[in-house]
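Lab channel / #folding
Pinned by the channel admin:
"Please post every new chain as: sequence first, then the structure tokens as a reply. Keep commentary short and put observations after the output so the thread stays searchable."

First post following the new format, from NK:
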Amino acid sequence: RGEYWIMKTTFVSACLMATAVALSSGCAMFRAQTTEIDVNRKDHMKANYDFVDMREISQSVADEMINSFLASKEPAPIMIIAGVENRTSQYMDTKGLTDRMRNEIMKSGKAQFINEARRADLLKEQGYQAVNATPETQVAIGKQLGAKFMISGSMMEMEQSSPKQVRISKTNEKYYKLTMEITDLETGLLTWTTEREFARAAREPLIGW
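Reply from TO:
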């Protein structure tokens, strides 16, 4: 019994000493900290879709569209983006995905884009100018260009986890598939489509913080 109390006292003393040293030295775990990260990094912290996926997929789809569908289109066609349908279980900023595709395509000079997100603002400004602006500075009504092709798509997800059993960690697997397509607005025909698939597994401890 005496040895037990000696060991217990020694352990408690060591813990108190370690805590005191950490506090006095300003240990990083007790301080708020901000660190710059490389947006071009390739690693993922979880199995979920993240900004690394967004950058890689948007670049890959834009490159394929530029080098295949748009390669022989002269003059550069006018396009409109209808968006990507989120069919996953998580919140996903799909507009960030299509915005980056549009930026890469525009930089290539292979297509022009209608600003569909600002149509209401455009009409409002045109109406204001028609009433208040001088004739020489008014924009002409009814001169907006129509799009020839529409870009749209969908993102789907499948998930599975390790079965319930005696274990110290849980493995979560997620599979994603992005489908992108281009539709001819005059004929309604689907003129181009592509897919991107990716999956990963993440192992998480059942006990932790």
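NK: The CA atoms of residues 155 and 178 lie 4 Å apart.
TO: also worth noting, The first strand starts at residue 78 and ends at 87.
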